[in-house]
Design brief:
Blueprint: H1 19-69, H2 77-86, E1 94-98, E2 104-107, H3 134-140, E3 145-151, E4 154-165, E5 168-179, H4 180-230, H5 245-294, H6 300-332, E6 339-342, H7 343-361, E7 364-369, E8 374-377, H8 379-395, E9 402-410, E10 413-420, H9 442-447, H10 454-464, E11 468-473, E12 479-486
Parallel strand pairs: 7-9
Antiparallel strand pairs: 1-2, 1-5, 3-4, 4-5, 6-8, 9-10, 10-12, 11-12
Helix pairs in contact: 1-4, 4-5, 5-6, 6-10, 7-8, 8-10
């Protein structure tokens, strides 16, 4: 059988599920998108710019050549060759001139010469050749045409224009340009961008790993702290670093652990005090019962006294249990149904119920109950508050002493005040009298039948209804307990 102390093993976080990897991957994805844009947009923009430049240049050249040829009424091979030889080919790969039927009248690869420093090409050609190019066909229909593409590190551009004479198409001119210099420039740009991208990718990889580690280190520290506190080490604290949300989260965690530590200390003290309070009457009952059982010669009157003492201790146990159950209900259950309650009427009922107790103790109770003291509360809860305060004032009073009970309005609040001329509370104990099981004079409290829980019940009940309670010393002797409740809205007049 597995021991109770065995801790449940927590499943480790996989590598790809960890926050550090997720943060690093998010950084890498962002930079990958940036690098893609860096490697595509400048190249595309450069290509578009070069295409535009070549279009304007080639169209200008075809226009010049067409203008020179349109002076001829009819185009013949000799006349066209003579005109084209006078024109500069301006680094073009090929120039074609055709008649209206597409018959080639001039071909720079055959009739012309290549650029300076290159040998002539004089291939054997058929007698009749036709330029079956799409550009030539469009030009013979009267359209200016331009095409350009970037391939294998060079720009290949073609342009064609019609040769017009008095509004009639008498031929077409077609030119071909192969630009390796611009292609090499664009290729160099692509290579440079690729090199820069590799450097940026390497730096990004290192920086993303570093930043994600720095960020997740604080999260990991918080997770470790949560596990430590979860194991019961409520004194563990985080050191906030910086002023960001993680620092605020660390501060909130510290505040939470402060509250948990306080709650745990209160719980332990409460359990210890409750155990102690329950143990005392149980020990007395056990001692008295053993005395009766072991002493066979005990007379009847002594047995009766012992049994009476056992009954008193049992009653005390019942009171402690009842008060503990009341505190448990106050801690766990929401406030019950509330209604408009006349504070003076409830105080008067409480005083009447305690008159036999005050008469037996020789204590006189004076009341001063103002009208129109209406609050929203539960009748039973308010009665319990008033009853406990007045009963304590009577119990911890001297013979021929006095208790003063009053209710009055103070602005938008209703105040209940219970003062006595009794033993009083030392100044250093005033802030502790509402703690559970706290008693100023334990011997006197037990003699009076107190459990140390009455004032705790009063405080918790008052708070459930939005009120407050305080204790202070009364001069020349005694104590004063004051309870404040918000005045019920809309109840300014008499009840």
């Amino acid at each position: 059988m597995e021991p109770k102390s065995a801790k449940k093993q927590k499943k480790p976080v996989s590598f790809f599920a960890s926050l550090q990897v997720k943060y690093a991957m998010s950084y890498l994805v962002i930079f990958a998108v940036v690098l893609i844009l860096l490697n595509t947009y400048p190249v595309i923009a450069s290509q578009d710019l070069l295409f535009t430049s070549k279009r304007d240049s080639l169209k200008s050249q075809t226009a010049v050549m067409a203008s020179a040829l349109m002076e001829l009424e009819t185009l013949s091979a000799d006349q066209v060759a003579r005109v084209m030889n006078m024109l500069d080919s301006m680094g073009l790969k090929q120039i074609l001139v055709t008649d209206p039927a597409g018959l080639i009248l001039y071909d720079s690869l055959v009739d012309g010469k290549k650029e300076a420093g290159k040998e002539e090409i004089e291939p054997e050609e058929p007698e009749y050749r036709y330029a079956l190019y799409q550009e030539v066909v469009s030009a013979l229909r009267g359209k200016d045409v331009f095409y350009s593409q970037y391939s294998s590190g060079e720009f290949i551009s073609t342009a064609a224009s019609p040769i017009m004479y008095r509004g009639i198409v008498i031929g077409a001119i077609y030119i071909l340009e192969v630009d390796q210099a611009q292609g090499e420039l664009l290729s160099s740009l692509q290579k440079n961008l690729g090199s820069i991208s590799l450097v940026i990718a390497a730096v990004t990889l290192v920086m993303s790993a570093l930043f994600s580690r720095i960020l997740t280190a604080r999260i990991a520290a918080l997770l470790r702290a949560i596990r430590i506190v979860g194991e019961g080490e409520y004194g563990h604290r985080l050191q906030p670093v910086g002023r960001d949300e993680m620092a605020q989260l660390a501060e909130e965690f510290n505040q939470l652990t402060d509250r948990l530590q306080t709650t745990e200390e209160v719980r332990r003290r409460f359990v210890s005090d409750a155990s102690h309070e329950l143990k005392t009457p149980l020990a007395s009952i056990r001692l008295l019962a053993d005395s009766i059982l072991q002493n066979e010669q005990m007379d009847r009157d002594t047995v009766r006294d012992f049994v009476t003492d056992i009954g008193d201790e049992a009653d005390r146990l019942a009171r402690i249990t009842e008060h503990l159950l009341a505190l448990t209900r106050l801690d766990s259950l929401p406030a019950g149904k509330t209604e408009l309650v006349d504070v003076g009427a409830v105080l008067e009922r409480s005083v009447n119920m305690l008159l036999p107790v005050s008469d037996a103790a020789g204590v006189t109770v004076h009341t001063s109950l103002k009208r129109a003291c209406i609050i929203r509360c539960s009748q039973d809860d308010l009665y319990q508050i008033c009853y406990n305060l007045i009963e304590n004032a009577i119990k911890y009073n001297y013979a021929d002493g006095f208790v003063y009970v009053s209710a009055y309005r103070d602005g938008d609040q209703v105040l209940i005040e219970v003062a006595d001329t009794g033993v009083g509370i030392p100044e250093e104990d005033l802030s502790k009298v509402f703690n559970r099981f706290y008693r100023v004079d334990k011997a006197r409290s037990r003699a009076a039948g107190g459990t140390g829980l009455g004032l705790s019940i009063v405080r918790d009940t008052v708070r459930r209804h939005g009120g407050w309670v305080t204790a202070r010393a009364r001069h020349p002797q005694g104590s004063v307990f004051t309870v404040g409740f918000p005045l019920a809205e809309g109840e300014e007049g008499e009840p």
